[in-house]
Amino acid sequence: MTITVFGATGLVGKHVVTLALGNNITVKAFGRNVDSLIDSDIKSHHQLQAIKGYVFDETEVLNAIKGSDAVISVLGGSFDGMDKTRSLGIKNIIQQMQKANVKRIVALGGMGILNATANTLIIDSTDYPEIYLPVGKEHLEAYHYLQASQSDWTFVCAPDITAADADGKYITATDYPPTPNQYKINAGNIAMFMLNELEKNEYIHHRVGISNS
């Protein structure tokens, strides 16, 4: 399998790249700061291709996706909602996937996009923390782009992400937060789940709640 990873140098992205290479997956790691991967201990891995590019550039993104079997997006950005990387970045990725005839994408968002009830999202709840609203709205817009696309998408809606390796101790739920919910998840566990989902395809066209167990 060959995958293109957007946001490959971020907190979760580095774990995605390392775990994928360990699973004999060819990785095209895309980002503005991929020099940090080139300078790391995986720089000489024969299945790693580091691609320096800008997620808003249509040609660069299209070229990065061509020839891949799937896409993983773990795009980050500022917390104040001013940076549109999460939403418009996903929009461009989806458009270029269609041109490249690549349908499968697993993307990372936030827990606020999960259901609070059958008819409301967590982000719409009256007690949703105001500080999280700007970035939550970015995740919501990204979710809407995925919904409207022709891709086979899965949207992982994470709580607070901790800088910790994968230990496999996590739980998931479809469209809702999992129970029990620890409200935190290891970056490595998100990466592990996203790669497993590419193989199992259990959550196509669904959001996924996830938490350390």
What does this structure look like?
The chain is α/β, with parallel strands linked by helices and 213 residues long. The protein has one domain: Rossmann fold, CATH 3.40.50. It contains 6 helices and 10 strands; from the N terminus they run βαβαβαβαβαββββαβ. It has helices at residues 11-22, 35-38, 58-65, 85-100, 133-148, 187-200, and strands at 2-6, 26-31, 48-52, 70-73, 104-110, 152-158, 160-162, 170-174, 184-186, 206-212. The strands form 2 sheets. Strands 3-2-1-4-5-6-10-8 form an 8-stranded mixed sheet, sandwiched between helices. The protein has a two-stranded parallel sheet with strand order 7-9. Helix 5 (133-148) links the parallel strand 5 and strand 6. Helix 1 (11-22) packs across helix 6 and helix 3 (58-65) packs across helix 4 (85-100). The longest helix has 16 residues, at 85-100. It is globular, with a radius of gyration of 16 Å.
Distance N terminus to C terminus? 29 Å
Give the helices and strands as they follow along the chain. EHEHEHEHEHEEEEHE
The helix content is 25-40%
* Beta-strand content bin: 15-25%
List the total number of helices.
6
* Number of structural domains: 1
CATH architecture annotation name: 3-Layer(aba) Sandwich
What is the residue-averaged pLDDT? 94
Tell me about the largest β-sheet: 8 strands, mixed
What form results from the Cα inertia axes?
A: globular
Strand order of the largest sheet: 3-2-1-4-5-6-10-8
User: What is the CATH C-level name?
Assistant: Alpha Beta
CATH superfamily, by name, is NAD(P)-binding Rossmann-like Domain
